[in-house]
Amino acid sequence: MLIYLKSLKKNNIYLLNILYLIFSISFSSCSIATEKPKCYDHNDPKCVFTTCETNKGCSEGEYCDPESKECMPSTDFCKDITCDNGGFCTVTDNKPYCECKKGFIRSGLRCVSENLCAGIACGKGSCVIKDGETTCNCDDGYYTDSLSCKKDFCYGINCINGSCAVKEGSSECICDWGYGNLENDKLKCVNLCKNVNCAENENCVLGECIENTSFCSKNNICVNEHHCWDTFYNEDLTLTNEFKTYDMPSCKQVGQIFVIPKNQKWHIELRDLPSNSKVFIYDSHFLSKTSFTPLFLSNMSNNGKIDFNFRSNQSGEHLILIERNNVFTTNSYKIKASCIENCKLNSTRYPVILVHGYAGTDNYFGIADYFWRVKDTLTEKGYLVFTPHTNPIDVSEDRANQLATQIDKILEQTGARKINLIAHSQGGLDSRILISGLGYADVVASLTTIGTPHHGIGIPGENLVSVQDFSPEYAENIFNPKYPNKNTVKYWSYSSRTCGILQFTCQDESEGERVNILLATSHVILTNKYGDNDGVVPTYSMIWGEHIRMLFADHFDEIGQIFDNDTENDAFRHLEFYENEMIRLKAYEF
User: Fold this and answer.
1) Comparing 162-341 with 352-587, is the CATH topology the same?
2) Which CATH code for domain 162-341?
3) CA distances (Å), 11 to each of 18, 40, 157, 476, 518, in order?
4) Whole-model pTM?
5) 154 CB-near residues (< 8 Å, 6+ apart)
6) pLDDT (tens digit, 9 = 90+) per residue, 19-30?
C-alpha cells in the first residue's frame, strides 16, 4: 500500500485501482477473488501478479478492463441491452453497439425506423432522429416547437435593462425592476420615473404619480422608486389544475412561489385580478436578490383575467409576481395551472449537491463518476444536481474550503436561496465544517450523510494511509464539539452494513448483501471490534441527526461502485435509492 501511495504521482494510470484499495483501509497487498491470488503489488513475493495491461494480455473473447486491469468477457458489454426492432448488440472497440435490420438505423443503443422523419416538414430546418425520437434541427434565428421551426423574434435583439420575449408574434423587451417600455418603442427599457416630479403626498409608479393613502408612505417605504413595495409570497409550491383563492394584502405586491423542472411547460390562468394588472415570472435569482430580469411578462389583465403558457429554463423555485398599480387596497385573486408538456419531469425546491468522500473526485479521468451514473440519471428526470470536487486525500478543513468556493459559484449560477447536500463518507465531515465552521448554515437547507464516520473509524494503523484523523477519540473529543449542528439546517443520516463472505446468516437477513472482496479484510477487522459495518465505517458511527434507516450495502455499493448496474438481485440499488432521495427532499419542500 505504501509503495503504491509513493508511486501515485508517477503512475496515474493506476489511480482508479489504488483509490479502491485506499477506501478499504486494508493493509494486505493480496486478496482472494478467484481460485488464484489476485495481486496489485509487483514487489510482493507472496503473490502472483495476474492483472492485465492491454487486450493482448487477455484470451480471445476477452478485453482488458481499463479500470480494474482485469480480463473481462466482451459479452458483458451487451448484458441487459435490448436494441429493439430486431436489432442485436455487438461489441466494437470495447463498446456496445446495436446492429440494425434493413429499414432501421442506430440511435444510441436502440434501433429505430429510418423513416421516422418521413412526412415531417420542419420548415426552416431539417428533421433528425435523436435518442430514438424525431426533432427539428432548426436554422439560425428559428427554434424547435412541436416538430416545426418557428421564427425566433428575439434573435439578435439585445435588450438593455431587460430581456427579450415574444408577445403576439413580435419581439418586446421585458424590463427589469425600475424600468419600463416607452409607449412607441417596446425594444427599449427606460426608467419611467426618472424625470417625474411628484408631490410630497405622492409616489411615482410606472411613470405616474399616485397619491399615498396608507401607512406605507408614513415610514418612507416608497419614495420615487418603481417596484419599491415589499412582496408577500404564497408558498404552496405546487400549483393545481383547480382554481385556488389567495389574498392580496394592501401595500404589498403579491407573489406565488412554485417549483417547476427545467423544460416543463405549463398553462397558467389567473382570475379576479385588479384592473391593469400584469404578471411577471422570475426564477430563483429574483428570490435571492441576485437578478431582477423576468422570464415572462403578460399583457395587462382583461376583465380580471390573464391566461398564458410558460416553459421553464432551470429546475427549482420560480415566482409568479402580480403587479398592480394601486397597492393601497386589499384584494384576492384565483390561480390554477396545468402541465401540458414534459409532465413526468420532477424537481426539488433547491439544487442538490453530491459531495464525494475520501480518495474521491467528481469524475475519474472522464471515465467513471464517483457517484456512478447518479447525476446523469437524476438530471434526465428533471433534477438540478451538481458534483463538486475537492482534493482526494486531504484533511476535511481544507476540503471544506474548496467545497465552499464551488458552492459559491453554484449559488451564483442558479440564483438559488439554499442548497441540499448529500454527502458520502468523509464528504459528510467536509459538509459539517462547511455549515457550522465556515458560516454556510443560511444557505444549506439539509445535509444527508451516507456512510460518514461521524464517530470515527478506529482501524489500527489507519493514519498510515490517511492524512485525516478518523479515530473515535478525535471524533468525539475534538471534531464533534467543534462542529455542532445548526438549528436552521435539517440533518439526516443513513447507516449501512454488509456481510462477510462466509456470514451466511447475515446475508440471509440482509437480502443477500455480501462485502466486496476489496473490503473483506477491513470488514473482518471492524466486525471483530465494533460489530456491524460497511467494510470501512462501523454502522453505529454513521448515525447523525435524524437517522432514517440502515441500508444493506458496503462502502462501494453506497455510491454504485465498482460500476454497479443495479441488477434486480442487488440488495441495494443505488440509482433507485438516490431517486427516492429526491422524492423525499421534494416532500419536505426542500
Assistant:
1) no
2) 2.60.120.380
3) 10, 13, 52, 37, 21
4) 0.65
5) 164, 165, 166, 171
6) 444 444 333 333
